[in-house]
Write a structure and sequence with these properties.
The protein is mainly alpha-helical. The protein is built from five helices and two strands, in the order αααββαα. A two-stranded antiparallel ribbon has the order 1-2. The radius of gyration is 18 Å and the shape is elongated.
């Protein structure tokens, strides 16, 4: 089945995992995040290493260890999280990134550019605070 918009498993884990961290009263560990997101604990650990490296969360090792946010939930957008994992979202004129088009008008009529802008706007408007009590 074909999909127009897809989100990678890594981005899914990062977004949902960060909401779980925001919801947690104390530290939350890789095992709990992997159980709640139905993901491999190794994949969760790898993704959260990147989030730690980028300063989104801090980690504490040990049996009582886990992750906690470095900022207030209202100061962390979905776009911040997404771009840590996937890189900066950019918009191109051509969905195929071709410098020259054989037609006078793009046959996609700029739809991919509009969808990308709308997706980026949506992510930038969502913060962890909005999902803290879910």
């Amino acid at each position: 089945m074909s999909r127009i918009v897809t989100i990678s498993e890594a981005a899914h884990i990062a977004l949902h995992g960060m909401i779980l961290v925001a919801q947690s009263e104390g530290l939350i560990n890789v095992i709990k995040i992997s159980e709640k997101t139905d993901s491999s604990k190794h994949h969760v650990a790898k993704i959260f290493q990147r989030l730690v490296k980028e300063g989104m969360v801090t980690s504490q090792r040990g049996p009582n260890g886990g992750f906690k946010l470095n900022k207030k939930p209202e100061d962390i957008t979905f776009l911040d999280i997404y771009e840590v994992i996937e890189g900066e979202i950019t918009t191109q004129e051509c969905p195929l990134e071709k410098p020259i088009c054989p037609f006078k008008k793009c046959i996609m009529n700029g739809i991919t550019q509009r969808l990308t802008k709308e997706f980026k706007q949506y992510l930038s408007e969502q913060t962890l605070a909005e999902y803290k009590d879910y």
